[in-house]
TrEMBL record:
The keyword Ubl conjugation does not apply. Its EC number is 1.3.1.104. It catalyses: a 2,3-saturated acyl-[ACP] + NADP(+) = a (2E)-enoyl-[ACP] + NADPH + H(+). This is enoyl-[acyl-carrier-protein] reductase. It holds the Pfam family ADH_zinc_N. Keywords: Fatty acid biosynthesis, Fatty acid metabolism, Lipid biosynthesis, Lipid metabolism, NADP, Oxidoreductase, Transit peptide. Belongs to the zinc-containing alcohol dehydrogenase family. Quinone oxidoreductase subfamily. It comes from the Bacteria. The lineage of its organism: Bacteria, Bacillati, Actinomycetota, Actinomycetes, Kineosporiales. The keyword Electron transport does not apply. InterPro entries: ADH-like_C (IPR013149), ADH-like_N (IPR013154), ER (IPR020843), GroES-like_sf (IPR011032), Mito_Enoyl-ACP_Reductase (IPR051034), NAD(P)-bd_dom_sf (IPR036291).
């Protein structure tokens, strides 16, 4: 079978190749899945660069989330059947024609969900929902986030709304406000506009912003911090622009702001099984009723995986980048 691999860490646009590798056989409790579509996530590309919290041995496969069809069952597997559509979101190396996963880690896909939605349903949406769930926010509370027009930003806004949580979104340019309006997302402020902080306070009506979420780093983290109320919390979710956050120590001290990190993978592993199932059910429900939108910007073949990496960081991208075998 064919799989995407890399023999060294580096820029995915330079180190990724497609090679013939042995087709895996499922062991006891495992399932072999034929890949249909796989999502390209930032953390996948950071892993290939060798800069993520997980660093595989070389040569390494790539990819962590895919929708596929059960192709073979290992001994002792129950509850799944050959030909059934499933999602894998915790299996490493799914950018391949076939992959093997623990049966208990696979999620059956309802017929109402398309392959394009299923291929990106769990990893980022589950992280966004887990983040919201972990914050202890009450109905009517305000949260501010940057990169509001990014995948996580859109997800947080859409998943917070049914819980009655208000989200103030920051984008770097006015065009981002229009992009989000197409997804039914409002309360957005462009930070390249003069007086943007006054506009933000106008949107919240002066209500305290309890939590801020930074997915960008650099000076953008400081923009989020500036809007957080006294005794609030700044949650570091990502570092799209810079691994260094530019924060005012005075603001943190005098507002008594708590700064902490959030790593969805770690939170998911520690989560109780019944609570995880509850959140996954909420995700599927939102995707089916349309309150959670998961657009696709483009689909690339494995042979175009280097182009897919470049497209993933294209400014103004409106949707997920997917790979197909």
């Amino acid at each position: 079978m064919r799989a995407v691999v890399h023999h060294e860490f580096g820029d995915p646009s330079e180190v990724l190749v497609v090679e013939e590798v042995p087709t895996p056989e499922p062991a006891e409790g495992e399932v072999r899945v034929r890949t249909v579509l796989s999502a390209v996530h930032n953390h996948d590309l950071w892993t290939i660069r060798g800069t993520y919290g997980f660093k595989p041995e070389l040569p390494a496969r790539a990819g962590t989330e895919a929708v596929g069809v059960v192709d073979a069952l290992g001994a002792g597997v129950e509850g799944l059947t050959v030909g059934q559509r499933v999602v894998a979101s915790t299996t490493f190396g799914v950018w391949a024609e076939y992959f093997v996963a623990r049966a208990t880690s696979l999620i059956p896909v309802p017929d109402a969900l398309s392959d394009e939605i299923a291929a990106q349903l769990v990893s980022m949406p589950f992280s966004a929902l887990s983040l919201i769930d972990s914050l202890g926010l009450k109905e009517g509370d305000w949260l501010v986030e940057n990169a509001a027009n990014g995948a996580v930003g859109r997800l947080v806004a859409q998943l917070a709304a049914p819980r009655g949580i208000n989200v103030l979104g920051l984008v770097r340019r006015a065009q981002g406000v229009e992009e989000l309006a197409k997804h039914g997302i409002g309360n957005i402020v462009a930070t390249d506009a003069e007086g943007w902080q006054d506009k933000a306070r106008e949107i919240t009506g002066g209500a305290p912003v309890v939590v801020g979420v930074d997915s960008v780093g650099g000076s953008s983290a400081g923009d989020v911090l500036s809007l957080i109320a006294e005794d609030g919390t700044l949650v570091v979710f990502g570092a799209m622009a810079s691994p260094t956050m530019e924060l005012s120590s005075g603001t943190i001290i005098f507002k008594n702001v708590t700064v902490k990190g959030f790593w969805g993978s770690k939170v998911s592993r520690a989560m109780a099984a019944d609570h995880r199932k509850k959140l996954l059910t909420e995700l599927v429900t939102r995707a089916i009723d349309g309150s959670l939108t998961l657009p696709v910007d483009a689909v690339y073949s494995f042979d175009e995986v280097r182009k897919a990496n470049t497209a993933n960081f294209q400014a103004g991208r409106d949707g997920k980048i997917l790979l197909r075998p």
